[in-house]
Amino acid sequence: MTVEGAARSLGIKEESVRKRVRRGKMHSEKGADGRLYVYVDGTEAVRERNRDERENLYGDRSEEEPTDAALEVLEAKNETIRILQVQLKEEREARKRADTIIAQLAQLNATLTTRVPQLEAPLTEYPNTEGTTVGSAEGIPMTPERSPWWRRR
Question: Residue 13 and residue 6: Cα distance in Å, rounded?
């Protein structure tokens, strides 16, 4: 058969027949007139027609009528989206609470920073009975550092 005839009988494009010849899937030979002739197996033609019939069988279904499997996939996708939306809402609320807590702590820190100088008492010195002065904070006497026993008189 010619390439055109083979393509018609198989129900495929001429280019597909030429590709099959190049790949070695179909036997061919050049004629005396320079045309390419292919050998078409009868079972191959039947297989191609059956494949075309299957495609037509499923291809006739309109895109507006999804299959049961497609409906299940769509329902699973919608459920996943609902779950993710709930999680996103919860995460946003948790973030809002954390931001509020951070803002409150920052405000408290600023307040305490201004009060620290007021709370610190000046260091006063009191004379010790031995003649050395002892420092104290807020009027509470502090004991002087004692020298080690080997250095005492």
Answer: 9
